Amino acid sequence: MTRFSYPRRLVRSLRRVAARHSLSRAIQLALPLARHLRGGQSWVATGCGDHALIVDATDIYIGGSIMTSGSYGRREFDRAIELLRRNDRLHGQLAFLDVGANIGTHTVYALRSGLFTRVIAIEPAPRNVALLRANVALNGMTGRVAVQEAAAGTSGGTARLYLDEINHGGHSLERRDLLHSVDVPVVRLDDVLAHEALGAGDVGLVWIDAEGSEIDCVGGMPRMLDASVPLVLEFNAAKYGQAKTTEFCGQLASHYSSFAVLSDEQLTVRPIVELGGVPLPAHGFFDIVVF
Predict the structure, then answer these.
(1) Any idea where the domains of the chain sit in the sequence?
(2) Which of 8, 9, 29, 63 reaches 20 to 30 Å from 239, CA-CA?
(3) 67 to each of 48, 56, 92, 168, 183, how far by Cα in Å?
(4) In this structure, are residues 151 and 161 in contact, taking their beta carbons and an 8 Å threshold?
(5) Residue 282, C-beta contacts closer than 8 angstroms, at least 6 positions apart
(6) Which spans in the chain are helix H?
């Protein structure tokens, strides 16, 4: 079992940098701070237009995308937001719930959009949490983001998180083929809201990327389901299996009327009852917005 801790001194230093300097200057100062206070050499600070991110250069997927293109998932985020606004399902000044927040890309996107007042970011992997906290601080968002270092599930408790050392977005409660692991807390999403003194009506959007555990995440948010809070999630039907996929589609259909596949070029809105019949791509999943 592998255990890590996040560098609190680094987060405090980045908060001061963000408060005292422009974004471009903060980026210049962030990397030396990260390397000095963390003691490692794999972190890279990158300017991304309206924000900055510190990434781990050993992460070939999310980190690699940000280092080469300046973003990860920003187009899909913007498309989901525009679709919900166009259908009058997203109103400003509410909270954004980022489940499987990783290093904070979508947390930053949400606050930069101007549509959300605060973010609750839930991430179980300790190394990702370190970067999540660093990125929140670097972008001057500390007072608007609550970080919960945990996995989301149907019930509270603990679980074994299996760590992907190459793709840091591939950590999973399901993949027992991975060599390293760490025990993490598990929380219900409705309980997280209660802890933050929020009701279901205070949430504008729930974004879930949980590497095959999406069904369990949704199972822990019955109050938000009853309120039909819009969802964006990775629909991993190949991992769920036919029986669980059918049950999950039925659960969603009892609370929502519509969905769209974010990778579709035309972003066509379809009846939610058609979700189970959408052909899977070769990699076995697609991102959907449900409302």
Answers:
(1) 74-290
(2) 63
(3) 9, 10, 31, 14, 30
(4) yes
(5) none
(6) 8-20, 23-38, 62-69, 74-86, 105-112, 126-138, 189-195, 214-219, 222-226, 237-240, 242-253
- Entry pTM: 0.85
Instruction: Round to whole Å and give the CA distance between 257 and 261.
Output: 14
Domain 74-290 listed as CATH 3.40.50.150? yes
Backbone angles phi, psi at 63, to 5 degrees: -60, -45
